[in-house]
From TrEMBL:
Pfam families documented for this protein: M20_dimer, Peptidase_M20
Presence of keyword Manganese: yes
Cofactor comment: The Mn(2+) ion enhances activity.
Record's keyword terms, sorted: Hydrolase, Manganese, Metal-binding
Cofactor annotation: Mn(2+)
Domain Peptidase M20 dimerisation, residue spans: 193-284
Amino acids binding Mn(2+): C105, H107, E141, H168, H367
Name of the protein in its database record: Amidohydrolase
Residue ranges crossing the lipid bilayer per the database entry: none
Coiled coil: none
Gene Ontology molecular function, alphabetical: hydrolase activity; metal ion binding
Length: 395
């Protein structure tokens, strides 16, 4: 009989192996759409365990574990594999060997955890009913996102899962704990690329120039009104500009200024309208000041929604597996994730895995050079996902 004690026992037995998987992947990070070695490493283990798999989205891997008891139920589990263009500052034996590339967002944890979960489920396959689809996905960190490509290539078909579950590291949550939120959870994200054109010249003769620096400044300030005066105040919206490039000098007004930013929100209708308003306002300001503006928007990921029934069930299973005191409520998170694409087309649950430990120094934020995890979290991540999977399949 499958129960949590059996799953926890297997999870403890393979803990050191999963740590090894994580450290290997962490030491050999690869950027989005270039996860060739990571993909081969995953396929090597699936082959050793006799788990059939197929290639998808170039470097993606999709495995299939079919339970020995007949059932039409199918559930998908997803992990992302890519790393970030960050120079790692940690001095650990498993630190990145690829200078300037680092697993600073925990995708090494997600992939190694799913390998551990696959091992557990495969070792129990004669005892459960249903099918588990293992999705090792490339390129979460780079638009258009590996999830969108895998969906287009049919990852949610043949067999078609009734639900998909994913987890993501969270250094703000203590190791041994997890967090859930039902309904809308993470924001959509769009990238803004603005080029303001003017007429450059000597800084001592501004009357002979059309100053794109001044125009860009007005645009940056004015666009904040889109959020403060056009958005419903009950709807979270974020507009931030992180890059302004004006290649002039103390006494040189340049011909153009480039601005880059991000817009995030939690409503698709408002998202579309806000982008229209931003483009119209920026172009209008530039024209009124004698210049012009190219306002390019790169559409990013949609908002992420956790299907209420699936998420409530997963949370209950987590409370059973870890204890109620170790399962937390999450607030809305204005970061974005391409797991959102799955949530737009099927029932989805995306929860947070605690990896923080002050004594071990693992509370640095993701996307920073010092990010690392308390590897004890791998004991939680593998077994919990296996338990949620089997319970959701009705075992």
């Amino acid at each position: 009989m499958i129960n949590k004690d059996k799953i926890q026992a297997i999870s403890n037995d393979i803990f050191e192996k999963v740590v090894g998987y994580r450290q290997h992947i962490h030491a050999n990070p690869e950027l989005s759409f270039h996860e060739f070695e990571t993909s081969a490493y995953i396929k090597k283990h699936l082959t050793e365990w006799g788990i059939p798999f197929s290639d998808m989205a170039n470097t993606g891997v999709v495995g299939l574990i079919t339970g020995g008891i007949p059932s039409d139920k199918v559930i998908a589990l997803r992990a992302d594999m890519d790393a970030l263009p960050i120079l790692e500052a940690n001095e650990k034996p498993y630190a990145s060997k690829n200078a300037g590339v680092m697993h600073a967002c925990g995708h090494d944890v997600h992939s190694s955890s799913l390998l551990g979960t696959a091992y557990i489920l495969n070792s129990l396959k004669s005892e459960f009913a249903g099918t588990v689809k293992l999705i090792f996905q490339p390129a979460e960190e780079l638009l258009p996102g590996g999830a969108s490509i895998m969906i287009k290539e049919g990852v949610l078909e043949n067999p078609k899962p009734e639900a998909i579950v994913g987890q993501h590291v969270m250094p703000l949550i203590e190791t041994g704990k997890v967090g859930f939120r039902s309904g809308i959870y993470m924001a959509s994200t769009d990238e803004l690329y603005v080029t303001v054109h003017g007429k450059g010249g000597h800084g001592a003769q501004p009357h002979q120039n059309i100053d794109p620096v001044l125009i860009a400044s007005h645009i940056i300030i004015a666009l904040q009104q889109i959020v403060s005066r056009n958005a419903d105040p009950r709807l979270p919206s974020v507009l931030s500009f992180g890059k302004v490039q004006a290649n002039g000098a103390t006494n040189i007004i340049p011909n153009e200024v480039k601005i880059e930013g991000t817009f995030r929100t939690l409503n698709e209708e408002w998202r579309k309208e806000a982008k229209r308003l931003m483009k119209k306002m920026a172009e209008g300001i530039a024209e009124s000041m004698g210049g012009s503006c190219d306002f390019r928007i790169m559409d990013g990921y949609p908002y992420l929604i956790n299907e209420p029934k699936l998420t409530e069930n997963a949370r209950a299973f987590a409370e059973d597996y870890l204890g109620k005191e170790n399962v937390l409520d999450l607030d809305i998170w204005m970061a974005a994730e391409d797991f959102a694409y799955y949530s737009q087309v099927t029932n989805a649950c995306f929860y947070r895995l605690g990896t923080g430990n002050k004594e071990k120094g693992t509370t640095y934020s993701v996307h920073t050079p010092n990010f690392d995890i308390d590897e004890e979290a791998l004991r939680t991540s593998t077994g919990l996902m296996a338990y949620i999977t089997l319970k959701q399949l009705g075992n």
